Amino acid sequence: MEKRASAKKAGNEPAKKAAPVRRGAAVKKATVAPKKAAAAVKKASATKKVAAEAVAAKPPRNESRTALVRRARRINRELAEVFPYAHPELDFENPFQLIVATVLSAQTTDLRVNQTTPALFAKYPTPEDLAAANPEEVEEILRPTGFFRAKTKSVIGLSKALVENFGGEVPGRLDDLVTLPGVGRKTAFVVLGNAFGRPGITVDTHFMRLVRRWQWTAETDPDKIEAAVSALFPKSDWTNLSHHVIWHGRRICHARKPACGACPIAPLCPAYGEGETDPEKARKLLKYEKGGFPGQRLNPPQAYLDAGGKAAPPLGAAG
Fold this sequence. Notes:
- The protein has helices spanning 2-57, 65-82, 95-104, 110-123, 127-131, 135-142, 148-166, 174-177, 185-195, 205-213, 222-230, 238-251, 279-283, 302-306.
- It is an all-alpha fold and 319 residues long.
- It is globular, with a radius of gyration of 31 Å.
- The N and C termini lie far apart (90 Å).
């Protein structure tokens, strides 16, 4: 009888000790696992939905001309809402300052030009002053912009041409502007559109990259790109279109790593997915005011400041 009791006790003890632990673990596992599984399924579904929507929104391979025009104009409208304060990112007060600043912007940033031109224009405020300048002194001022010897030659040369051929005034015609040293169609359209209010498309590196990504054209030559894109829009849109595209290229649709996950026109873009698609990671790639950083102008328009943009620091300043 004692043996039976011992056997019974021995037989029951493991069960009494193990049962609560196993039952608790099983309950916990049964509770947590479905929650994790549900969360995983929900996340996967959301990811697939976003990806599916992006893929579904891509333009068809055989997009008609009419569909292309509609998509291109819609992109411009969307960007106009994102960048209602878009403006030329070179500081200038008159056509002469703008044309010189635009020539200096080659192979450098607008910010660097803006940090350099105050000293240049303080010493040489007119074409007559710059035309008569000592090249070595101009070179020293322009050194931070890079290629300063060639740029010095160009700005002094164009100043002399303005004095000799146009009475010291910047002409408002394309054919006249491109006769000036260092001035091509891109620079001419910057000046015409922003100093004279005459429509023009500025085909810089950002513009070329984006319109090809958007499949507005397959051309690689700037003049051919200009012709192809200008045919998609009314002439009155050309100058602001240039601003919208260039601003988008500088802030969101970067050359090496586009912020696809933070792009407002992703559903309209055939190149969606070439860059970072995760929204959180993409937001970290945003630049200038979109990323909470200063812009490129030391003296930006008030509309830009009202929208949260910050003025760039002068040359040599901290920050």
